[in-house]
Every structure is written in structure tokens, then in C-alpha cells.
Amino acid sequence: MLTSLALLSHAQANNLSESSAKMQLDTLIAQHHGDVIYVDFWSSWCGPCRKSFPWMNKMQNEHQAQGFTVISINLDTEQRLATEFLRENPANFSVIYDPNGELARFFKIQGMPSSLIINKLGEIKYAHSGFFTNKVSQYEQEIQQLLAL
């Protein structure tokens, strides 16, 4: 899968209203231009999401200095549910709240969690539906490969 995130800021952005979530994502992507970005879509009710948070924290800690960042997008309709989840599963990365699911619809997210791995040019290079501990080495290899370019 090869898609440019620039489309969020240009012509196709008309399909996505100027929501707070979209503006936050645009801002974070601009701040991390030239970085490898792991975008994670999650909800508080999602069991695999709980398993992914320690791994995402680890990846953020280990690779931030190399130009890697995690951006998570919460899809709970009530922010308090996400806040409670984050008390139990702290995040050392950015969290965007998207209660209307606009970003999930825009990126055609099919399940929770789902992730996009974006290269330094802002292109979506990998997309995953679900988080599987037996695939962690694959996810890490994809990130390492993009960091090395």
C-alpha cells in the first residue's frame, strides 16, 4: 500500500470536514515531517489495543531519537472512556480523539486496532488490521527498514 498523507492537506481533504481530529493529525504530521510515523487507531473496548500499548511505548522510547514517532487515534464516542483506558494503559505518545470516526472512515479502517506505518516522505507503506504479538517482529522490521532509508 502506497498512499501519500499529503492528500489529507490537499484536494481530497474536502471529503473530510475540518474536524479537530483532522487538524490535530495535520499538525502532528507537519511537526514530524521527515520521520517514520506509526499511526494507531484504537478504542477502549478493544482487548488487542491493551496489548499494543506497551509495545508502542517501547517503540517510541527506543526509536524516537532516530526519527520515529507514534500517533494514536482514539475512536471512542465518549472521551471519558479513552481517559479511563489511558489511566490503566499510559501512553508516552500523542493521542488524538476522533469521536465521530472521521479519520477512520477517511483511511478506510476496518477493525480495532489498525495501524499505518508511514515513511519519511509521508507515504503509507504498511497497513495492519489487528495487533498480534506473534507479528511484533514483522512490525519492528518494517519500522527499522523505513528508518534505515
Query: Mean pLDDT across all residues, rounded?
Result: 89
The number of distinct structural domains comes to: 1
Fold-level CATH name: Glutaredoxin
Number of helical stretches of at least 4 residues: 5
- Give the full name of the CATH homologous superfamily: Glutaredoxin
Radius of gyration: 14 Å
Tell me the name of the CATH class: Alpha Beta
Strand order of the largest sheet: 1-6-5-2-3-4
Q: What is the overall shape?
A: globular
Tell me about the biggest sheet?
Answer: 6 strands, mixed
Low-confidence stretches: 1-17
- Terminal-residue CA separation: 17 Å
What does this 3D model show about the protein?
The protein has 149 residues and is an alpha/beta fold. The protein has one domain (3-148): Glutaredoxin, CATH 3.40.30.10. The protein is built from five helices and six strands, in the order βαβαβαβαββα. It has a six-stranded mixed β-sheet, sandwiched between helices. Strand 5 and strand 6 (123-129) form a beta hairpin. The two termini are 17 Å apart. Mean pLDDT is 89; it is low at 1-17.
Summarize the structure.
The chain is of the alpha/beta class. The protein contains 5 helices and 6 strands.
Properties at a glance:
149 residues; alpha/beta; Glutaredoxin; six-stranded mixed sheet; 6 strands; globular; disordered N terminus
Q: SSE layout and pairings?
A:
Layout: E1 3-4, H1 20-31, E2 36-42, H2 47-63, E3 68-74, H3 79-88, E4 94-97, H4 102-106, E5 114-118, E6 123-129, H5 136-148
Parallel strand pairs: 2-3, 3-4
Antiparallel strand pairs: 1-6, 2-5, 5-6
